[in-house]
Amino acid sequence: MGATDAAVARAEVRAQAGPQEQALSSEADIMIFGGSAGCGKTFMLLLEPIRYVDIPEFGAVIFRRESPEITNQGGLWDESARYYPELGAQPNQQRLEWTFPSGAKVRFSHLQREDDKFSWKGAQVPLLEFDQLESFSAGQFWYLISRNRDPAGKVRPFVRGSCNPVPEDDSVGGWLHRLISWWLDEETGLPRPERSGVLRWFVRVDEDRLEWFDSHAEAEAAYPERDEAGMLLRSPLTMTFIPGRLEDNPAMVRADPEYRTRLLSLPRVERERLLGGNWKVRPTAGSVFDRAWFEVVDVAPAVARRVRYWDKAGTEGAGAYSVGVRVAEVGGVYYVEDVARGQWSPERRNAVVRQVTTADGPEVAVWFEQEPGSGGKESAQISTRELAGYNVRVETVTGDKVTRAGPLSAQAEAGNVKLVRGEWNEAYLSELHGFPEGKYKDQVDASSGAFNKLALGGPLVVGPLGTPPVSQRRTLNLGPAAP
Question: Looking at residues 219-225, what average pLDDT do you find?
Answer without folding.
Answer: 94
